[in-house]
Design a protein that fits this description.
mainly alpha
């Protein structure tokens, strides 16, 4: 079985995989009940993680194109 990662505009496959993992975690967080809007919390988490990823591992992770692709994937309906 072949697994295909979304192209988030990262320069490497490893970078795209890292962003895909952040999006997956954020989507899981969006389903958590709590006093604060869980979707907004998940988006904030995702954007913070992308910023960290950009500082520590993949500089392009904080680019607008990568953030927009990650948000699009976050809001994409499950098939």
């Amino acid at each position: 079985m072949s697994y295909q990662t979304t192209d988030f505009g990262m320069f490497t496959v490893a970078g795209n995989c890292a962003v895909a993992e952040i999006v997956r975690e954020a989507r899981e967080l969006a389903g958590v009940d709590g006093p604060v809007n869980p979707v907004q919390q998940a988006i904030n988490y995702m954007l913070n993680e992308l910023e960290y990823l950009g500082k520590e591992h993949f500089e392009e992770a904080d680019d607008t194109a990568v953030r927009e692709a990650a948000l699009a994937e976050f809001f994409k309906e499950d098939e």
